[in-house]
Amino acid sequence: MPSFQSIFLSALCIAFGLKLWLLLRQMRHVWLHRDAPPEAFLGIIPLEEHRKAAAYTLAKARLGLLHLALEAGLLLYFTLGGGLQALHDLIAAQVASPLLAGTALLLGLFLISAVAELPLSALAQFRVEARFGFNRQTPAGFFVDLMKQALLGLLLGGPLILLVLWLMGVMGTSWWLWVWGVWMAFNLLILAVYPTFIAPLFNKFTPLADQSLKERIERLLARAGFQSSGVFVMDGSRRSSHGNAYFTGLGRHKRIVFFDTLLNQLSPEQIEAVLAHELGHFKHRHIVKRIALMFFLSLALLALLAWLKEAGWFYAGLGVASPGDAQALALFFLALPVFLFPVTPFMSLYSRKHEFEADAFAARQTQPAHLVSALVRLYRDNAATLTPDPVYSLFYDSHPKAVERISRLEAYNQAVLTPVRA
Prior knowledge:
mainly alpha, 16 helices, about 5% strand
C-alpha cells in the first residue's frame, strides 16, 4: 500500500502539472487568435483593442507561471521540506502556552506566505496593470492597503484561530461541530458588517448623486422587489481604471455599489442593465445557495479533519514530527487544495450557470440590447480576452465566454423584437 507521502506527491504532481498545462494552453490559444476577434465581435471590438486584450492576458499568464512556481515551492517547503515543523519548534521555544503557540504558528504561516507573494503582487500592480494603463495605485497607497489588510487579518483572524484551537482542545470528539458553528457565525457576521464597517476602511462610499439615474434604479428595484439600504458610488478609480458593480450585505444592510469608473464608462441604460444582472443573482438566491454550499462543504471537510487529526500517518507523510491541533489545521489547509483541484471545473460550471440565469433575469427587466452593449464596452475597456482556451475556460472561468454570453442575450433580444403571431 502506498504511503500517504507518495499519495500526496502524486496528487501534487498531477494538480500542478495540470495547472501548468492549462496555463500554457491558454497562452498558446490567446497568442494564435490575437489577430482575429471572434466573428460576433467583428466591427464592434477594434483589432488594436483585441490585440491589447491578448497582450494583457499573456502578461498576466506569464506572471501566473511565476505564481505557480512560488505556490509549489512554498507547499513543498512547509510540508516535505520540514518548514512547518521548523516554525513550530521556533515558536514553541519562545511561547509556553500551547494555545498561544498554536495561534502564533498559524498566523506565522499566513504571514510568511503573504510576504513571499508580495513581490508578485507588486509586479502585477506596478508592471502589468501599469503597462496597460489600468493602475492608478501609488506605492504609498499600496503599502497602506497592505498594512490595513494585515491589521484587519490580525484583529479578526487572531481571535478566531484562538477560539477554534480552544474548542479543538476542550470539546472532545465533537469539537468539529462546535468549530463549524463558530465558522458559520463568523462568516455571517462578516457578510453583515462588511458594507458598513470593513469596506469603508479601504474605499470611500458616497450616495449616488445623479438624480435621474437614481430614479431609474429605484424603478428597477421596485420591479425586481429588491430593498436595500442605499445606492452608493465607490472610488474605485483610486486604484484602478477597471469598472464593476455589485451588491453586498445581508438583510437590511444590503447595499448596491457602483465603481465610479463604471459610471463614467456606461450610459444610464447600460448601467440599469448591469444592475439588473446583479439583481438577478439576488432574485435567484444565488448568494444564499453559495453560502449553503459553503456551509455544507465546510461541515464535511471539518469531519474529515477530525479523522485526519488522530492519524499519525497524516503528520508523518507531510513532514511534521510533532502532532497537534494547530499543526493539523495548518497541514489540512496546505494539502487540501491539491486534492480538491479536480473539483474546480464543477464549481466553475456552477458559477457560469448562475451568470446565465442572472443575464436572463436582466433581459426580462431591461432591454437585452442594453446589457449586450454594456458587456461589449466592459470587455473592451477592461481588456478582457474574447478568445480564451476552451479547456482553460472550462476549468477556471466563473463567467461564460463572451461569445456564448452575447449570443444568448442577442437571442433574448430577438425574441423581444419578434412580434407574437396569433
